[in-house]
């Protein structure tokens, strides 16, 4: 049995194109979903994966409709293969029912992993170059050392008329942030 899975990221998008392609391929049942491919909570994907039996074929319009993560994609397809379920991605020309399709899938997987590693290396090199120029990463502090000293002086004064909330508001931070800096 050919079973299709169609997904769009937002409710303003339409699965019509995917559904038409899945129907043209001969899918007898189609699961539709709206939600990001990077989210792990995709009930229709869970349902379609449960519904698949040995000899079935899972059909998607494009690989990124199944998953945005290469690791997740390879895991899903490996699980399908182990269960005797075939996988077809219509626009990517991947069909694991053939030897060539399996090879193409693994080559795509290797290329995607290579690309991710290159991006990671570039990011690390850029961060290292920024650090060498004296730039520091991360969020900017909410309070300067001068503001912390002033807040500490106010809070340590036994005759103060302000509450902690008022002191925090004076410095534009939350009460919790104020106490975190005063520790």
UniProtKB/TrEMBL annotation:
InterPro entries: Homeodomain-like_sf, Recombinase_CS, Resolv_N, Resolvase-like_N_sf, Resolvase_HTH_dom, SSR_resolvase
GO BP annotations, alphabetical order: DNA integration
Organism superkingdom: Bacteria
Keyword DNA-binding belongs to the record: yes
Classification via Pfam families: HTH_7, Resolvase
Keyword DNA-binding: yes
Boundaries of every Resolvase/invertase-type recombinase catalytic domain copy: 1-134
Listed transmembrane segments: none
Active site: 9 (o-(5'-phospho-dna)-serine intermediate)
An example Gene Ontology molecular-function term: DNA binding
Keywords: DNA integration, DNA invertase, DNA recombination, DNA-binding
SUPFAM superfamilies: Homeodomain-like, Resolvase-like
Family that this chain belongs to: Belongs to the site-specific recombinase resolvase family.
UniProt-recorded name of the protein: Invertase
Lineage, uppermost ranks: Bacteria, Pseudomonadati, Pseudomonadota, Gammaproteobacteria, Thiotrichales
